[in-house]
Amino acid sequence: xxxxxxxxxxxxxxxLFRIFLVLGSLFMILLIIIYWDDVGATxxxxxxxxxxxxxxxxxxxxxxxxxxxxxxxxxxxxxxxDEFLNQVLESSNKxxxxxxxxxDQKTSQETSGQNGKQQEERxxxxxxxxxxxxxxxxxxxxxxxxxxxxxxxxxxxxxDFPGRNRSFDDIPNKELDxxxxxxRHGIIYCYVPKVACTNWKRIMIVLSESLLNQxxxxxxxxxxPREHVHNSSVHFTxxxxxxxxGKFARHLMxxxxxxxxxxxxxxxxxxxxxxxxxSKFEIENEEFYRSFAVTMLKxxxxxxxxxxxxxxxxxxxxxxxxxxxxxxxLDPRTEEHMPFNEHWRQxxxxxxxxQINYDFVGKLETLDEDAEYLLSLLNxxxxxxxPPSYHNRTVSSWEEDWFANIPVEWRRELYKLxxxxxxxxxxxxxxxxxxx
Length: 436
Description:
The chain is mainly alpha-helical. The chain has two domains: 42 residues; 340 residues, no CATH class. The protein is 52% helix and 6% strand. The protein is built from 20 helices and seven strands. The strands form two sheets. Strands 2-3-6-7 form a four-stranded mixed beta sheet, with helices on both faces. A three-stranded mixed beta sheet has the order 1-4-5. Strand 2 and strand 3 form a beta hairpin. Helix 14 crosses helix 19. The longest helix is centred in the N-terminal third of the chain and has 38 residues. About 21% of the residues have low confidence.
């Protein structure tokens, strides 16, 4: 009887110990989350193991100062917290290593796609003109105007559009895939295709050191192959937070959105569409031919059975016209099948400017000046420089020629489709295109 009672007591104590252990762990996690929010006000960045340790490519005097100064306890605490979360969640993310053998082994379809991308790069060319090293005082004022316009539009403007009034928590995870995070420097970049995003992605790769070439991080953005730049596995985006942090994901997103510097680049919506058409349908691109051009040809031309490959189609002089492309955008069946492709999806659907308070809004029309100014604001201009811009960049003056054969009614419908982007980012309504 005594032994049985003793065993019962031991089991009770063991169970009680496990309960206290679980409650203690939950309390510690709650304490960590609360403390994490509080220490954010000291304006340091939350460094996670996604990017590894801080970059060693710092000026020599900075490194010597760092050795002399004691470590900041709160920052160390945050690093420990992030390491703790990573261990608990059993997740890891290592830089991608490139090998010549792997990059050489491509299927014929991939090779065709890469040839198209290389052709696109050659067609564009680079403008190696000298840049001004002076910083205009008007840049700060220009940024304030752009950000104020966003704020006014999202809070007071009468024009409404889908998703404008939803909260950040209401945004589906799959719609956060354009927000690239660099934990090394506390930067979040929302990339918009056809707005210099290839080179900005290159910048993010260099800063985060997320891609290695023979074991060494890339130092020159232009040395990063184009096909690797657009490989989603290279970039740590918000939609990957769920896999890494689970139920903590949305909370960590909000913390980083609050503490990090957030930026995006935009351009005139109609000019962006022209650029998208030029690069995806005027140049051989197997992926876009099969996914979109074939549909356009079947729906809006007399080619009921288009060639199976883009090579055959171009050899026969068959490709969708710009008019066919506009028809496709205006066709209700297009989005019934799937959302707009990112190359012509509206910017407000890619970057959610009414839910995310961007610190910097750049424009392609002032790319060189804005890029130089932004990199200096981020204090990384000593680490990386923005690559030279394209000398034959699609410009607004082309709009009239490109839309000459587009019916006025179609133009008006197209403007309504992209009106929110025009208004949000301060682009004038193209009145001449919309008048009879």
